[in-house]
Amino acid sequence: MGIPEERIERLHALARRAVAEGHEDRSRAYVRRARRIAERNRCGLPRTFKRFTCDACDVYLRPGKNARVRLRDGHTVVTCDCGAQKRYPYRPRREERDDANATERTRPN
C-alpha cells in the first residue's frame, strides 16, 4: 500500500470519527480531501469508503444518524439526509437462496 492509499484510509477513519462526534462539516472536508487525493494519484477509493459517503453532499454516512438504509428486492437503498439515493445489489444468504430454490422445485405446475 502506497502513501496515497494510507492517507485515504486515515482520512476515512477521521471522517467516520467526525460524524460520530457530530461534526459533519469536518467530515465533509475529510471526504473531499480523500477524493482529491484519489483523483490526483489515480488510485481508486476503497469500496467501504465509496458506499459510506454521499456523492451529492460529500458527508460520511452513518445509518440511523444521517442516512436511511432499506432492503428491497435484490438491492439495498441508502438515502442521505440531503435526499440523494444510492442502490447496491446484494444476493440473499445461501440458506435463504437454498430455501427459495427448494420451494420452487416442489411447487406443482
Description:
Helix content is 50%, strand content 16%. A hairpin with a 2-residue loop joins strand 1 (67-72) and strand 2. A 3-stranded antiparallel beta sheet has the order 1-2-3, with no helix packed on it. The chain is an alpha+beta fold.
Provide the structure class: alpha+beta
- Give the % helix: 40-55%
Would you tell me the overall average pLDDT? 90
Order of helices and strands: HHHEEEH
Beta strands, count:
3
- Uncertain spans, ≥5 residues at pLDDT below 50? none
Number of alpha- plus pi-helical segments: 4
Estimated radius of gyration: 18 Å
Q: Going across the major beta sheet, what is the strand order?
A: 1-2-3
Task: Bin the strand percentage.
Answer: 15-25%
Distance between the termini: 55 Å
**Biggest sheet character:** 3 strands, antiparallel
Shape: elongated
Observed structural traits:
single chain; 109 residues; alpha+beta; three-stranded antiparallel beta sheet; 4 helices; 3 strands; 50% helix; 16% strand; elongated
